[in-house]
Amino acid sequence: MTNTRKRYALALHGGAGPVAGRNYDSVEAHLKTLALECEVLLADGRSALDVVEIAVAELEASGLYVAGRGSARNTAGYVELDASIMDGPTRKAGGVAVIKGFVSPIRIARGVMEKTPHVLLAGAGAAEFARGHGYEEVSDPNNYYVVPVGVTANEMRDSHTHGTVGAVALDQSGALAAGTSTGGTFGKLEGRVGDTPLIGAGTWADDDVAISCTGTGEHIIRAGGALSIACAFKNGVPLAKAMQSMLDEVKRLGGDAGAIAISRNAGITMLYNSDGMKRASVSMDQPLHVTTFD
Ligand code: ASP
Description:
Blueprint: E1 9-13, H1 25-43, H2 48-62, E2 81-87, E3 92-99, H3 105-115, E4 120-122, H4 123-132, H5 141-144, H6 153-158, E5 162-170, E6 176-185, E7 203-205, E8 209-215, H7 217-222, H8 225-234, H9 239-252, E9 257-263, E10 268-272, E11 279-283, E12 286-291
Parallel strand pairs: 3-4
Antiparallel strand pairs: 1-5, 1-11, 2-3, 2-6, 5-6, 7-8, 8-9, 9-10, 11-12
This protein binds aspartic acid (ASP).
């Protein structure tokens, strides 16, 4: 009998920054609920692009991860955020970098993609665009931000650890999409931009694969990032091998990283070379899987 079920797949990450021995139960419970909600959307025929945006916006708003509400201040004492999103079939993409005062950078990134001729807006110009289009602003920046799960307030001030959130999806029409959002690395300088808002570094989607990266952004950029994985995959290298090569290069350069990817055939790959990576995956023929360390 032919299987007539339509294909869909989803993978989420909550960053490659977890520290071995710490407890991430509440994060895993959140990823589980969110992945199941997103699965319903995909099973109902919602687009990969919408699901990626919805998933990343929820991860940002939760305050559980180093993105959106859970972000740390830079060395100048305020929160600057980065995000990007990409639609595989159209290759349209949008990003924001070093934006401050807004609740959902991923939603603004989608706005940049759909409402401007540009791919990336940064700083004051990004904020001006977001304000002009009515994206939600943080009403009280002194009280909005919280310490995310698994991080101490001291680490948020002066360590160089990090965290990010991301989503990749394949919808029933065969379209792939990817999105990533971050508060960046702790102790970062004012104006610092990592891999996350850069299309091809932190985020990539085309007809073959959708990828979201996490880890030390400077090393991910220098290792070729998501696009180097996509190019190797297009040239016949198995997805896991292509991803591992990029991660090995990050390691060789002195960083750590992880990535999640979905291929056009609904294959899900999630690898990391840090202590762990908070992550969840589900597809039309793979049950929900949520884990951090193993
Ligand atoms: N890649 C992010 C950055 O460098 C951090 C992370 O993924 O943990 O800004």
